[in-house]
Here is the input.
Amino acid sequence: MSSLLIKNIPESIRKKLKEQAELNHRSMNKQVVSILEQALERPGIGSFPPPVKAKVFITDKWLNRAKKEGRM
Here is the structure.
């Protein structure tokens, strides 16, 4: 199993992590691994959203007009 060293963790985050670990009867290390596993299993991590079907044909002229009107 690999190791990872995380530096410069703000004290407020460390305290919250410690509290969560205690509530879940885990070490801080096991709590971090659990949090990372949950975050990486969520849909959308590492994938792109589906393409959007535009109602207009987007041209340079359309983009320039949208920029002038403050739409972008």
